[in-house]
Specification:
The chain is 5% helix and 14% strand. By secondary structure, it is mainly beta. The model has no long low-confidence stretch (mean pLDDT 91).
Length: 110
């Protein structure tokens, strides 16, 4: 299958306010993604493949219906901003404590 040059170069993706219920596993196939805005959707879970976004610095998950975060998110070592406020998350994965670059983390539930 031919690689899509555009997606290989994609650095920022804003999918906010789209009533998205789930993300495809292929979200992890964006090697240069730095910013991912998924706020104000209907997401109940994130695919494990999100942990393959090694260059990701900003992940905005505000106002969804997430009940947890995948442990693989701890693989995103350079993540600086993680906002998962206004979700249904009661407990964060212990693995997230390994995110040494994290400077802003917002976790308050609804």
């Amino acid at each position: 299958m031919a690689k899509h040059y555009f997606f290989d170069r994609l650095q920022s993706l804003n999918l906010s306010n789209n009533k998205i219920h789930h993300l495809p596993t292929s979200i992890g196939d964006l090697p240069n993604l730095i910013g991912l805005d998924l706020c104000v959707n209907e997401l109940e879970a994130l695919p494990e493949s999100i942990g393959r976004l090694e260059k990701l610095r900003l992940l905005d998950l505000r106002q969804n219906k997430l009940t947890d975060l995948p442990e693989t998110l701890a693989n995103v070592k350079d993540l600086i901003v993680l906002d998962c406020s206004k979700n249904l998350i009661e407990k964060l994965p212990r693995e997230l404590r390994h995110l040494k670059s994290l400077q802003v983390g917002k976790f308050q539930p609804i």
